[in-house]
Specification:
Length: 430
């Protein structure tokens, strides 16, 4: 809050902005609570806070150490990263979100890798934006640098070979997965990375150079040959969606593969959405579909696939966790044509609730609708498919939203913000 005049202070503590802040940040303290954004108590609280803060900040000196910190030049990537760390860990916008993320992903420990994951790649409840999105715009970075920092969620994580030191502070490294080379700016004259060394780590762009992000692990020196080839193959198999960020040839193959699977799914089921009474019947249907697909293949190709994947039968076996197979309240399988299949359990309650168009929803129906929106594995297109058919009234009712406004896009960006970034197929290559 960097107001320079009293009238700007009054504008800064606008009641609508405070209402939005409270309504959004409350999720960090009570994620299961549903609050109507136009609730009278929320309005009363926002007005009281506005009056209080306007009065208090009118008496505070306008000079700000934080403002001076953020106003420092952003010449190098680490200049921006230093601000990013402070904003992500300490500001009221992100510190609770960051804390919740660290508890979920790292048992609450604040280590460099986990913090870097949150700062660079995570979406937040602030309309699904990440810390880089908001800070980059706040600092009014030039368009090229803003584009760079907003792309940091796609860090180039790979094995890198150090080729040479181009200068005292610039390294030339090679991504051994796809042979791409990078000029990497470092903040030390005597770099510990010597030619021939293999590292595993992440790189992000910032202007002319790339920068290390997070921790780099020293693998040592590995000779070109089988050991290096095996390392590369295993990495591609285990982390294909990361590799697709920078290996466009593999991405093209994966995209083509997903298109074939999508066509096969829609041809077999007649739609990109298939609904079953329970998990067992879903598993049986998908197994039957796979068998039919493989039986269409020429015998030579089928034998080759059986040998490659070590199959006893000429088709892969469909395996799901017990909780999916034992689900008995309706199961839906949606094929996201860009990524792969998505499964929605408890589909009977969801469908029943949507069909009621906001009237007399049961608690189970409301909860199922909220889970549908909250789920980070259900894409917006799946949501649009059902709401285009049954309307958004029940979604609005489940979230206590005004019926006069179409709030669906806001909810999807807030809870499914990661789907509005670049996404890649759930398809790996052996």
């Amino acid at each position: 809050l960097f107001a320079e005049k009293n009238e700007q202070i009054a504008e800064t503590f606008d009641v609508k902005r405070i209402k939005y802040f409270i309504h959004t940040i409350f999720y960090e303290f009570e994620p299961d609570a549903v609050i109507a954004p136009d609730h009278v108590d929320l309005e009363t609280l926002a007005k009281s806070i506005s009056v209080f803060l306007t009065d208090r900040f009118a008496k505070i000196p306008k000079d700000s150490g934080l403002k001076k910190f953020l106003a420092q030049p952003d010449k190098y990537g680490w200049d921006f990263k230093r601000k990013l760390v402070w904003v992500g860990l300490n500001t009221y916008l992100f510190r609770y979100n960051c804390g919740r993320y660290l508890i979920k992903k790292n048992n609450g420990k604040q280590d460099i890798s986990a913090i870097d994951d949150f700062l660079c790649q995570e979406n937040t409840i602030w309309s699904g934006l990440g810390v880089t999105d908001i800070l980059g715009k706040t600092l009014n970075l030039p368009d090229n640098l803003l584009h760079d920092v907003r792309s940091w969620y796609e860090r180039h994580f790979a094995y890198f070979e150090v080729i040479s030191a181009k200068s005292n502070k610039v390294l030339l490294v090679r991504n051994i997965i796809n042979d791409q080379t990078y000029e990497v700016m470092t903040d030390t004259v005597n770099s510990p990375f010597v030619p021939g060394l293999i590292l595993i780590g992440s790189l992000v762009p910032y202007g002319k150079y790339w920068y290390w992000s997070g921790i780099q692990h020293n693998i040592g020196k590995i000779k070109i040959g089988k050991e290096l080839d095996d390392l590369k193959k295993k990495f591609i198999h285990d982390a294909p969606q990361i590799v697709y960020r920078y290996d466009k040839e593999l991405l093209e193959k994966a995209t083509e593969g997903i298109k074939i699977q999508y066509s096969d799914f829609t041809e077999y089921f007649g739609d990109d959405l298939a609904v079953f009474k329970d998990g067992l019947s879903m598993t049986a249907a998908l197994q039957k579909k796979e068998r039919a697909r493989y039986e269409k293949l020429p015998e030579k190709e089928m034998r080759s696939l059986m040998k490659k994947h070590r199959l006893e039968n000429p088709f892969p076996k469909i395996n799901f966790p017990d909780y999916i197979i034992e689900s008995d309240n309706g199961v839906a399988v949606y094929f996201n044509e860009n990524e792969g299949t998505e499964i929605m359990l408890g589909f009977d309650d969801l469908l029943s609730g949507l069909k009621k168009q906001g009237v007399n929803l049961t608690e189970d129906e409301s909860e199922s609708i909220r889970e549908f929106i909250f789920s980070d594995s259900i894409c917006p297109d799946f949501v649009y498919k059902l709401t285009n058919k049954y309307g958004i009234q029940s979604v609005q009712k489940a979230f206590l939203l005004s019926a006069e406004n179409d709030n669906l896009d806001f909810l999807l960006h807030k809870y499914k913000g990661h789907f509005f970034r670049n996404r890649y197929p759930y398809l790996s290559f052996s």
